[in-house]
Amino acid sequence: MPVPANFVLRLGSSSLTSVVSRQNRIVSSLIGSNIQKRNFAKASFHINTPDNKITLNFDFTDENYVLVRKILSKYPNNYKKSGIIPLLDLAQRQNGGWLPVVAMDKVADIVEVEPIRVYEVASFYTMFNRTKNGKYFIQLCGTTPCMICGSEEIKKTIENHLDIKSGETSKDGLFTLLEVECLGACANAPMIQLNDDYYECLTPKSIIELLEACKKGVPPPMGKWGSLPMNGQVSCEGPSGKTSLIGNPVFPKIREGGFSGSVDPKTVKDQMAY
Ligand code: FES
């Protein structure tokens, strides 16, 4: 059965069962109907676009298949589905920061579940982007501590500087802005997450400097503790420097060969599964 040109796939719910047959991808005729489109939120749908349709292909690179095997080796053979989240993350990174539907299908194939089980995960967790983002994905925290410390001003500065609103991508494809809830760096509010990294203690001046550095392709590297307060302070230290926890930190030993005591950001990333 041919796939309708304007195929619409509902994501994030198991209530519409048999939406897609993994074997032949037969699409229920209900899915493309206007009734379905009207009844569910936009975020619950996949809508075919030229760069995101089920007739395209996605596969992991040979290099990433090594990581796929490494991820799956952590789980019993009959619980491959436990690897859905790290595999989606790997697929997203390989695909430039977003997950086309065919990448989700590939993960479903690998962990041997129906695609809907993977769509549910990808559409539930906001760490997964199901539409294309700019090269620099800016997640701006707008929750109370950041808001009190000036996140609204930071947001307006970004919007004016890049000529985009939250949820939009700049015309040059470099930046996507999204206002999100607390990112857990409230002590250094206001802050943004830029791709994987945290830039904190922002001012309108420093956020413009950061955006301009990104345009040149050289965002400032992370500081000593894996984030970068943009006001020159070290981590969460105030103007008096470090006033507590001044002894040598004792790091938990997770397992043999685990954390060595270094918190260099690269080391931390290396300690992840991939
Ligand atoms: S409120 Fe912004 S990081 Fe927590």
SSE inventory with pairings:
Elements: E1 8-10, H1 34-39, E2 45-47, H2 62-72, H3 84-94, H4 101-111, H5 115-124, E3 136-141, H6 144-148, H7 151-162, E4 175-180, E5 192-194, E6 197-200, H8 204-215, E7 228-229, H9 265-271
Helix pairs in contact: 2-3, 3-4, 4-5, 7-8
The chain binds FE2/S2 (inorganic) cluster.
FE2/S2 (inorganic) cluster binds near residues 143, 145, 146, 182 and 191.
Task: Explain this structure.
The protein has 274 residues and is an alpha/beta fold. Helices cover 31% and strands 10% of the residues. It contains 9 helices and 7 strands. The strands form 2 sheets. It has a 5-stranded mixed β-sheet with strand order 4-3-5-6-7, with helices on one face. It has a two-stranded antiparallel ribbon with strand order 1-2. The structure holds FE2/S2 (inorganic) cluster. FE2/S2 (inorganic) cluster binds at residues 141, 143, 145-146, 182-186, 189, 191.
Order of helices and strands: EHEHHHHEHHEEEHEH
User: What's the arrangement of strands in the largest beta sheet?
Assistant: 4-3-5-6-7
Shape: globular
* Percent in strands: 5-15%
Uncertain spans: 1-8, 12-42
**What ligands does this structure carry?**
FE2/S2 (inorganic) cluster
Based on CA atoms alone, the radius of gyration comes out at 21 Å
Helix content: 25-40%
CATH class group of the domain at 136-229: Alpha Beta
Alpha plus pi helix count: 9
CATH superfamily of the domain at 136-229: Glutaredoxin
Q: Kindly report the CATH topology of the domain at 136-229.
A: Glutaredoxin
Supply the CATH architecture of the domain at 136-229.
3-Layer(aba) Sandwich
By secondary-structure content and strand pairing, the structural class works out as: alpha/beta
How many strand segments? 7
Largest beta-sheet characterization: 5 strands, mixed
Distance from N terminus to C terminus (CA atoms, Å) equals 39 Å
Kindly report the average pLDDT value. 82
